[in-house]
Write a structure and sequence with these properties.
Distance between the termini of chain B: 39 Å
Number of helices of chain B: 10
Order of helices and strands of chain B: HHEHEEHEEHHEHEHEEHEH
Number of domains of chain A: 5
Structural class of chain B: alpha/beta
Helix content of chain B: 25-40%
Strand order of the largest sheet of chain A: 18-17-19-20-26-25-24-22
Shape of chain A: elongated
Strand order of the largest sheet of chain B: 5-4-3-6-7-10
Structural class of chain A: alpha/beta
Largest sheet of chain B: 6 strands, mixed
Distance between the termini of chain A: 49 Å
Number of helices of chain A: 13
Oligomer: heterodimer
CATH class of the largest domain in chain B: Alpha Beta
Strand content of chain B: 15-25%
Helix content of chain A: 10-25%
CATH topology of the largest domain in chain B: Rossmann fold
Number of strands of chain B: 10
CATH superfamily of the largest domain in chain B: von Willebrand factor, type A domain
CATH topology of the largest domain in chain A: Rossmann fold
CATH architecture of the largest domain in chain A: 3-Layer(aba) Sandwich
Amino acid sequence: MSRFDTFFQTLGNTLDDWFLAPPFLWLLGLIPVVILLYLLKLRRTEVIIASTLLWLKSLQDLTANAPFQRLRRNLLLLLQILVILLVAAALARPFFRQEGTAGRNLCLLIDRSASMSSREGDTTRLELAKQCALEMIREMEKGDKVMLVTFAENSDVLCELTDDRPRLRAAVEGIEPSDTRTRLRDAILVARSLKLSVADLHVVVIGDGKIRDLPEIGTRAFDLTYLQIGETSANAGIVAFSMRDPLEGQDDEQQQTFALVHNASSDPLDTTLTLSFEDTVLAVEEVHVPPGDDSELVFRHPELGRGILRAELDVDDALAVDNSALLAVQPIARIKVLLVAEPDGTSSYFLQRVLVPDPRVELSTLAPTDYTESSEYDLTIFDSFAPASLPTGTLLYINAVPPMDGVGVEGTVEHPAIISVDSEHPMMRFNLNPSNVGIREALRLVVPPDTRSLVSTVGSPLVADVSRGGQQILIIGFDIAASDWPLHLSYPLFFQNLLAWVPRVALASEASTIAGQSFAIMPDPERTSVSVTRPDSSVDAVDLDPLRPVFYANTEQTGVYAVAYGDAVLFHAVNLLDRTESAVAPAESLSIGRAEIAPERGRVRQNRELWRWLVVAALAILTLEWTIYCRRAWI
Amino acid sequence: MSPETTTEPAAYSLLDADFLRRLERLAILAKRVQLGHIKGERKSRRKGSSVEFADYRDYVQGDDLRHVDWNIFGRLDALYLKLFQEQEDLTVHLLIDASRSMAFGKPGKLAFAAKLAAAIGYIGLVGYDRVSVEAFSESGIFRLPAVRGKGAARELFAFLDGLGAQGRTGLEQSCRSYILRNRSKGIAVLLSDFLDPSGFEGALRRLSQSRCDLFAVQVLSRDELDPQVTGDLKLLDSETGEFTEISVSPSLLRRYRENVGGFCDAVRAFCMARDIGYVLAPSDTPFEELILDMLRAGGMIR
């Protein structure tokens, strides 16, 4: 870098300390132009006098002939230059920093995410943040209003813009810590929309700046203050924890558990990680992690069955919540499938061939004549048969149509050519492409206009998704036995997708949920509500929907959530598992859009802008200049 | 510079009734005073030598009838004046600078100088002195040959009234030629602004070589003494055509006034060193006042 670059960089930094919009200072380039114009346009009044003898002598005494001597004496020009200076300075928005937030409307965005629970001395960051907020509320002047928003995984407006100080204080004191990740976007959107109506609103983010979604906040410039809370960086935590079932075909048939430990402090970490299942310790392993690095641990153990698997890092650091991680180990989810088909039919054979090998499937087979409606099946497949009413669960009609409004059959199609495939549908995953399947004869299906056709021929669908009201219903409009589909790769893939589409499989297979996100509670035909016992032993009653899963989102606390279906209890593990939160060192700046917002500490200092005064001064000088120009009484 | 400073004719003609009336008053006042009474020895010599006959000359209208030789009138039926040798044959030389620079000021410096010359000349004529006028510039000389007697006043006024300012100043050259041509004793009054690029000293030095009593009347306009100008100006010299650009500032004006004062002081000092009477005559001074007060203060009239 040349000396000039260094110079300009230093100059730029200095200007940034004084001006919010330094590029406008280029307007100062007008000054030489004005001087030049002045010199060029300086029209002298010609006066004939008796003799210039005495004037010449006087000029020689003064050497006033030099151009700059002339300028020095010209008040109008000086005033014009002054006006340019003031206008350029005003446009560049000079400011000075002033402590305190008095005299402004504030929107306080308070971080209450997991990292805010970090210990700072004998208090926590959240307590420090609350003190800062209370201080700002105490400094409110008459007419000032404050809005309170907390943010973690979700944002909550605690108080709309108000000058009710007791209410604001109570709201701040009532802020509880959460164990979740940090997302600021919603809170910023709230502040932005408020700023549309309250122009002088100043947004203050109080927190440690460990925010996951900063890049999503947008590129629009946003004037806010980042009040940095916290100092410590001494923390280590578990940032990933998962279990893998034994791989088929492997000899040892052991389950593998995987844990990733991140050391965010500046010192190496030497400790142990304890893996326990229920109350039994499975393994204790030493962990060595260099500063700022990760260490990966893999445990092998026999299949565990049902229970809570816990990893515990033996360390006493700033943040406690990331020192343990949980997994709710469930037996593999069983899918109860009912196949209603002629027992000796060809299509029944092909269907059983594709369903029976899957370990998840618990297959029952009934002849159409034996069929009675039952709600205990997750998936019912009707082959060339349709009962008069719809049973519960996921339904697949093959070569038949369900008794639904708008669904029917209008004759048949000979050798239908497959002309389009909806590859976006979850049933068509793995690039499933049945276009080369040969079909002898298919039903000409009539479906409601908003139906998604998965596979279509000319004028009618061959495979259609007629799901309604949360119940998943599929129609295959031809007899499998009257086609060569079972001989194609798309056939087993289609049924794999079908099984994965069943909600119990799709939703219940997650052993661990990230704090703040929701987990699904499956419908139970025998109950209308379940009770959820939270890690702090409080109990939530949740109403069930008979047809579809209910999502439980009150998961800000990490730990085990027990969903009790009567005596049967299903466990859900909620973990933090977040590298951003575990690295507790406060962020050095917030980059929102193109702006890099430097932190304030302790007290907020705000920019008091001076441009108004400069504009007033410029106008005053302009008036003065005009007056002088008109009078030219004294120059 | 204020726009009034242009070449303009005299505010009124010298032959104005008003002006003549004022001169008349002045002449009555001047009855009791005589020109050329500065030097004590001259005064005494005139008293003792006024009876010796010297010559006759023709009567001209306006001459005092008491000096007519009535004997000759009886014999020849013609009017002659008796002149006495010992009576001082005093000539009032009026030298007027008529360069272009004299055309400026309000009232014009040349007009003012002409009025002064008329007044001095009239007083001289009333006192039976010969009066000759010469207006000069580099471009030419206008001469009124010596006249005598009150009756020549009209001629004198007409001559002075017709003066115009033109050409550059050539004071020294003009004075030298005048001295060479006029050897008579008397009073020489030089009316000029002395703004000669080549300097005023030469002219006064030449004049001081004559046998006359010398008076320098420096005529300057008020604009020159105390200019009221503002702004950025381009000053054109009326004689040389050279221009000077100035931006008026208080310090420049102060400096100019100092220079004007210094210039006048230099002329005065030069005059004093050579026994030349000096009067500074701003052109806006009432000329009667100037004649009575300033010329007396300058020693020209008792």
